[in-house]
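ABC transporter permease: structure, please.
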Amino acid sequence: MTPKMHFLSNQSQNQKSIILEGVWDFRTSKQTLKSLKKALQTHIESIEFDESCQIDFVFGTYFLQQIYACTADFSTQNPLDSTSHTPNPPKPPKIIAPNHIRQILQTCENMRIKKPRTFASMFRVYVRGAKRFWRKAFSNLGRYICEFTQSFVDFVNFVGMTFYFLGRSIFTREIRIAPLFYHINESGFKALPVSLLTAFIAGFAIGLQGAVQLENLGAPLMSVETVAKLSLREMGPFILALVIAGRSASSFTAEIGVMRLTEEIDAMKTMGFNPVVFLVIPRFLALVIIMPFLVFLADAMSLLGGMLAVFAQVGIGFNAWVERFYETVDWVHFWIGVIKAPFFGAAIALVGCFRGFCIRENTQELGQATTISVVNALFWCITIDAIFSFITARLEI
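Here you go.
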């Protein structure tokens, strides 16, 4: 039968001690625990566990908590250490226990629940975390700025080097005609189907929306010049530039990047060939030459799409549309779109070739550079278009 838990308080020669007997575990009554707690609060000097006494981890944890709570300074002493003492009272009581009880108490001491964090400690933890966050954020921002600055400087150097070798090739007649026509066909004529279809769809969509809005305002006839000017100045050249940027910039980067990985460019340098003259200039000139012609065709398809949209929405016939077009649309709107085209082609070719030369390590970098080249080419096309729009608006053209 399990012996009943009880404790004895002993006082002799001004020394108070407690002797625990029986089984002390999670089934111990609250009344018994309260009595033990009250006895511990009387500055007990020693606590002895009888040889027949048994405890569990629940009581061991509670027992140590009560000792720590009743002791003014327990941070520097371990009550399980019978040799520990302090010259300054009060001091933890000396615990005398068999080995099996001492092991349980030592385990409970190691697993003792920490005191709850105060607001100050929680605030310090928050401040340290915030400092680490902002330090990492500013470090990443600084690294990004450095990488962006270095990439921009390298791109400017690449552009300068391209124009230098281009001028020298023109004067020394080193321009290779066969690769030039090859890239005109690959980057220009083979891109015509998707480019013209995209321009037609964009012209139709813009024409339809413009006709709806102007019809609501009571001026449906103005949709002719509005759609025509927008197609010639913006939609035709810009939509074409976006298509060519997505097609040719990635192609140039992939081609030159593969040559970089397979060390073909190093072999060209070893044989005395200039990679810029052989790889960059033909692609650069091909897009600069072919883009105005592509813009002309894209303008025609965009106007056709706008004409069909206006006819479908407003009911303006083709003859009336053409007459209104000649009355209200000047040639200057067409030439503004055509003048943009070589700049679009130059930006696309330079970005695509530059990103191809930047590849150094592996095929994974090739895929990343291809993606970056398309994004950069689109960015420069949008920037060039915005610059032209700002200049023409200031000049009232």
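Notes: The first strand starts at residue 6 and ends at 12.
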